[in-house]
């Protein structure tokens, strides 16, 4: 797959880059994407929900009245779930929501998500000048990024490596979500309207595929 590299003004530079078909041109596996996204969202849940049972609720343990002879129903104590302030029956307890998904399935999901974006022509490659930042500057970065990708509702910016100055520049921009090449995940790809790679980040994909082919 061949893409043209654009500059920070959003114009074509005349240079192109080849993205490996093994990653950006595979058949899209929607079920693998669903599993990966489901695992990611489940892992975000804290699972700290908790209610008090009859044993934990406050109140006297004394029987309200004698068992028989009152003409009414038999009653225990105030902590009965039927009374206001009583315990809760079968309420939620703290537990994890983690779901196991095999590494190979997650890799297929990630490649499927990238391939889907590629088929929709929603992948851009921009010169590294975009992320050559000496100090955080949100306003300047926002204007520059808008020129690079003006029509996107939400963009995923993929960096070759973590850069604190770049991260601090875009973290307060609602329409930009960023990650490094090593931390990219299926949810971020699917959740974004378009994916913007820096030139150096895009080259890593080709290098990794070449390395894997040599090892094979």
From TrEMBL:
Region of interest called Disordered, as start-end residue ranges on this chain: 51-85
InterPro entries named in the record: Ribosomal_uL4, Ribosomal_uL4-like, Ribosomal_uL4_dom_sf
Gene Ontology biological process: translation
One cellular component term from this protein's GO annotations in UniProt: ribonucleoprotein complex
UniProt keyword annotations, A-Z: Ribonucleoprotein, Ribosomal protein, RNA-binding, rRNA-binding
Gene3D superfamilies: 3.40.1370.10
Pfam families referenced in this protein's UniProt entry, alphabetically: Ribosomal_L4
GO molecular function annotation: rRNA binding; structural constituent of ribosome
Top-level taxon of origin: Bacteria
Job of this protein: Forms part of the polypeptide exit tunnel. One of the primary rRNA binding proteins, this protein initially binds near the 5'-end of the 23S rRNA. It is important during the early stages of 50S assembly. It makes multiple contacts with different domains of the 23S rRNA in the assembled 50S subunit and ribosome.
Assembly: Part of the 50S ribosomal subunit.
Record-stated family: Belongs to the universal ribosomal protein uL4 family.
PANTHER family: 50S RIBOSOMAL PROTEIN L4 (PTHR10746), LARGE RIBOSOMAL SUBUNIT PROTEIN UL4M (PTHR10746:SF6)
Protein name, entry field: Large ribosomal subunit protein uL4
Species in which this protein is naturally found: Hanamia caeni
């Amino acid at each position: 797959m061949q893409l043209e590299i654009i500059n920070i003004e959003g114009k074509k530079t005349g240079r192109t880059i080849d993205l490996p078909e093994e990653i950006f041109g595979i058949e899209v596996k929607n079920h693998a994407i669903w599993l990966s996204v489901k695992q990611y969202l489940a892992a975000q849940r804290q699972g700290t929900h908790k209610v008090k049972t009859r044993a934990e609720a406050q109140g006297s343990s004394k029987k309200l009245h004698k068992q028989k002879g009152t003409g009414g129903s038999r009653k225990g104590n105030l902590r009965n779930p039927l009374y206001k302030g009583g315990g809760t029956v079968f309420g939620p307890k703290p537990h994890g929501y983690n779901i196991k998904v095999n590494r190979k399935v997650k890799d297929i999901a990630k490649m499927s998500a990238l391939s889907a974006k590629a088929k929709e022509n929603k992948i851009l490659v921009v010169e590294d000048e975009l992320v050559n930042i000496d100090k955080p500057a949100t306003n300047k970065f926002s204007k520059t990024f808008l020129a690079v990708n003006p029509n996107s509702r939400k963009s995923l910016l993929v960096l070759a490596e973590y850069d604190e100055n770049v991260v601090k520049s875009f973290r307060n921009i609602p329409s930009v979500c960023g990650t490094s090449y090593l931390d990219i995940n299926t949810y971020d790809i699917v959740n974004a309207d378009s994916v913007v790679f820096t030139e150096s980040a895009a080259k890593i994909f080709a290098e990794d595929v070449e390395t894997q082919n040599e090892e094979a």
